[in-house]
Write a structure and sequence with these properties.
Layout: H1 2-10, H2 12-40, E1 52-56, E2 60-61, H3 67-74, E3 78-86, E4 95-98, E5 101-105, E6 109-112, H4 116-119, E7 124-127, H5 129-134, E8 138-142, H6 143-149, E9 159-164, E10 168-178, E11 191-194, H7 197-201, E12 216-221, H8 231-241, H9 243-246, E13 254-257, H10 258-261, E14 269-270, H11 279-306, H12 308-320, H13 325-362, H14 368-371, H15 374-400, H16 404-409, H17 411-450, E15 461-465, H18 472-483, E16 488-494, E17 503-509, E18 512-522, H19 523-529, E19 533-536, E20 544-547, H20 548-554, E21 562-567, E22 571-581, E23 596-601, E24 612-617, H21 621-635, E25 643-645, H22 646-653, H23 655-689, H24 691-699, H25 704-738, H26 747-778, H27 781-786
Parallel strand pairs: 2-14, 6-11, 8-10, 18-23, 20-22
Antiparallel strand pairs: 1-12, 1-13, 3-6, 3-12, 4-5, 4-9, 7-10, 8-11, 9-10, 15-24, 15-25, 16-24, 17-18, 19-22, 20-23, 21-22
Helix pairs in contact: 2-11, 2-13, 2-23, 11-15, 11-17, 11-23, 12-15, 13-15, 17-23, 17-25, 17-26, 18-21, 23-26, 25-26
């Protein structure tokens, strides 16, 4: 080991590039590995995980509130059942108030039935599950919420009051404090209220299950029972009691095990109540870990083989002194393992320092040091041994096989260093070009989706929720005040936005069901969004307009003026159609289009409460937001202003893809950087090896520019070979990415970005090699000829 340390001291560039490249790669690998490990072990702490299932059908994972009661009462395999709804304090039960605190509290509020804590292993720190079960006005709060709002007193027994516009106050009593929900499909919440309240707030949450899709239904089966075998019987029963099945809206019944739920991806849409993992992201991150680790190991192998001439003399001497081939091999493996161990220690420290930034990027909090338990530490030791073995075995075999006479002559290094190093450089550059192409493709595709034409205006529109007001008079006062502001063009009342959808109305039509989004607002709302009328039937009576897509769904010509809904069971009725609106995208871009019934009020009715106020602004968005928030604070001093720009809301729907894009870009930068380090070091050693040849050429009068061109072109040829190999790889990867989207950029851009990736890779290689080449040709030939390789 002493000789290895001496070698490192004499070859600082070799040591720095190997240590830096391996440390950076391992730090990134550790961050990704911890994240992936956390993802793969979601809900592993649940004691009843093997007996917990969630109901689903072929279209979505979601159900009616009373489904849990039907399953529990009619199927003995079900031991416990609960409905679950994740919401927020503002959109769920209105604003939350606590005695002694005048301001409204922004609390994340979820809802579940009495058996929730029997099914899931979320520990109560104080209070009791019995108190939670005792009253349908019970609530459990998180430790974080308790520490924030009850720092000096016991929260158990305290009152939580929710105020709903036009519907009065609802008070819950704190029954306990729970450990913060984390590492689960169940979302974190500040307050968990009994879900029974939802039957009071919405009459459609009845035993007939009129309201479908708002809740998730979890069941816990008895030990050794088989709920999957009961699915045909459950399907028959639901066909008798639930209109979703009797009216053929859905047909199948599924029970998804909790252990499969986090990464479940089988075409069903989710209600948004639960946390979902991204299996594609995990696979990409695993691939990133492997590639980065491979790059670092290849660099070590490449540089060690490049330096083999110097190490070979030492090893040849050892063999002459009696050390066998095996001793030489294990000595070099031990050196590589020690090097990997030092890099790993540094990588752990760097990864922990970067963990907060990685947590924000991934949207998932984690700590590297917190995850290093004894089993993980042992796994890291095994990993160090594997990396050390892989890094050391090829250089060791290369040197140990050499004949002492070849080492003395110097022919050994000439035979090995050239082809081996160049092959590894090509491999690294193939991966680098492919990753650059994927990164650029992601960047342009996501940008194209965010700015795709949607058929309605999206720029400079602030969407203000009406839930932040306590009365209709406050809403109207707010509108009048903001309309008077110089940077506000107009303000309109509406009932939702195209992005998030509006109220849904599903009707019986020609033996099936036909669903419509009900788009309602005043003239200012329509003008702000730029919704365009295509044709008007000029009916005398008040009637709904349809969008173009609704006529296609109904199989009617756009000239139709009436439509017949209903069936023999509920009766038939005729609805008039006022005209046609041009299609505009309802729901996010990547979701299916919806049929819409559209109604514009000249003046929004006094007896209706709008869902939101759209404010068209000019100038700086941040300044406009702050000024409008000041107006709200004057009208509602104890309230919390809640608004967002539609542009930002659209961008947020692509947050998952944007996050993935950032990860891939960071990974690409690191991969290209590590690859460039290797190329820089390799060019240094290979050019040093050719220094005598260059000196001889100069002595015989060779032109410096010609020599420089020969050196640079030899490395650019490697980049060109790598580019040719990377083209099909890049095409397959970018095509795979684009094929998942219904809206995508053209193939011409795909080819252009692949070409740009190759040019960029060649440029990096050119400038990496250029400096070393210039130094070599400007070195005094006398000095070069005196040097020993």
């Amino acid at each position: 080991m002493k000789s290895f340390l001496n070698f490192i001291r004499k070859n600082g560039l070799y040591a720095f590039i190997n240590l830096f490249g391996l440390t950076v790669s391992l730090a990134f690998v550790l961050l990704l590995a911890v994240f992936v490990s956390r993802q793969l072990t979601t809900d592993s702490f649940q004691e009843n995980a093997d007996r917990i299932y969630i109901y689903a059908n072929e279209n979505f994972i979601g159900s009616a509130y009373y489904l849990q009661k039907h399953l529990l009462d009619h199927f003995p395999e079900v031991e416990k059942a609960t409905s679950y709804l994740s919401g927020s304090g503002i959109t769920g039960l209105g604003e939350l108030h606590i005695a002694g605190n005048d301001a409204a509290i922004p609390a994340q509020t979820s809802y579940a039935d009495s058996s929730f804590f029997d099914i899931f292993s979320f520990r109560l720190l104080s209070g009791s599950v019995e108190a939670w079960k005792a009253s349908d006005r019970s609530a459990v709060i998180s430790r974080r919420f308790a520490d924030t709002y009850f720092p000096d007193k016991d929260p158990v027994g305290q009152a939580l009051t929710y105020s709903i516009v036009g519907d009065g106050d609802y008070t819950f009593t704190v029954a306990g404090v729970m450990e913060d929900i984390d590492h689960s499909v169940i979302k974190y919440c500040d307050v968990m209220c009994r879900a029974d309240i939802m039957t009071e707030l919405n009459g459609a949450n009845d035993e007939e299950m009129s309201n479908t899709g708002q809740f998730d239904t979890f069941i816990m089966t008895w030990p050794n029972s088989d709920i999957q075998a009961k699915i045909p019987e459950i399907r028959d029963y639901l066909g008798k009691v639930w209109w979703s099945y009797s009216e053929n809206m859905v047909d199948k019944v599924f029970f998804i095990p909790l252990r499969d739920l986090y990464f479940f991806d089988d075409s069903q849409s989710f209600t948004g109540n639960i946390n979902q993992g991204d299996g594609q992201l995990v696979k990409i991150l695993l691939a990133a870990c492997i590639i980065l680790l491979l790059f670092a190991v290849l660099n070590y192998i490449n540089l060690t083989v490049a330096q083999s001439g110097r190490r070979a003399k030492e090893m040849a001497t050892r063999r002459l002194l009696g050390e066998g081939k095996a001793g030489v091999i294990w000595r070099m493996i031990a050196e590589a393992t020690a090097f990997a161990a030092v890099s790993t220690v540094l990588a752990v420290l760097i990864a922990e320092a970067l963990a907060p930034y990685a947590s924000r990027l991934l949207g998932y909090e984690f700590s590297v040091l917190a995850e290093i338990t004894l089993p993980i530490a042992l796994l890291i030791v095994v990993g160090i041994a594997v990396i050390g073995f892989l890094s050391g075995i090829i250089p060791a075999l290369t040197i140990s096989r050499a004949k002492p006479i070849d080492i003395v002559r110097g022919s050994f290094s000439l035979q090995i260093r050239s082809w081996f190093g160049k092959a590894l450089i090509v491999i690294q550059q193939v991966v680098a070009v492919a990753m650059i192409a994927v990164s650029l493709m992601m960047l342009f595709q996501i940008r194209a989706m965010i700015h795709a034409p949607l058929g309605y205006n999206t720029e400079d529109i602030l969407n203000v929720s009406s839930d932040i007001f306590t009365s209709g008079s406050q809403i109207r006062e707010f509108r009048e005040a903001v309309e008077a502001m110089p940077f506000v063009e107009s303000a309109g009342f509406g009932e939702g936005t195209p992005l998030y959808g509006t109220n849904n109305n599903t009707m019986y039509y020609q033996g099936g069901l036909l669903g419509f989004q009900l788009v309602r607002g005043d003239s200012a709302y329509f003008n702000i969004l730029g919704l365009r009328l295509k044709s008007d039937n000029h009916l005398a009576e008040t009637a709904w307009y349809w969008n173009e897509y609704a006529f296609k769904e109904a199989g009617l010509p756009e000239t139709a003026t009436e439509v017949r809904f209903g069936n023999e069971k509920v009766g038939y009725y005729t609805q008039t159609i006022a005209g046609v609106y041009y299609d505009f995208k309802i729901r996010p871009l990547l979701q299916d289009q919806s049929a819409a019934m559209i109604y514009m009020y000249d003046v929004y009715p006094e007896n209706r409460t709008p869902w939101n106020i759209l404010v068209k602004v000019t100038g700086d968005h941040g300044e406009a937001y702050d000024r409008i928030a000041e107006v709200y604070s004057r009208i509602r001093p104890d309230g919390a202003f809640d608004a967002s720009y539609i542009e930002d809301e659209i961008a947020a729907t692509f947050e998952e893809y944007t996050r993935l894009q950032k990860i891939i870009i960071i990974f690409t930068i690191i991969a290209v950087f590590v690859s460039s380090l290797g190329l820089f070091a390799m060019s240094t050693y290979y050019i040093r090896a050719r220094s005598r040849n260059i000196a001889v050429q100069k002595v015989f009068g060779a032109d410096k520019r010609l020599v420089l061109r020969q050196i640079v072109i030899s490395y650019l040829m490697l980049s060109l070979i790598a580019f040719v190999v990377s083209v099909p790889v890049s095409w397959l990867l970018t095509s795979s990415w684009l094929n998942q989207f219904s809206y995508s950029t053209g193939a011409w851009l795909q080819w252009l970005l692949i070409l740009a990736s190759g040019v960029l890779s060649c440029a990096v290689a050119f400038f990496t090699v250029l400096y070393q080449s210039i130094v070599a040709i400007n070195t005094n030939p006398v000095i070069a000829l005196r040097k020993e390789d």
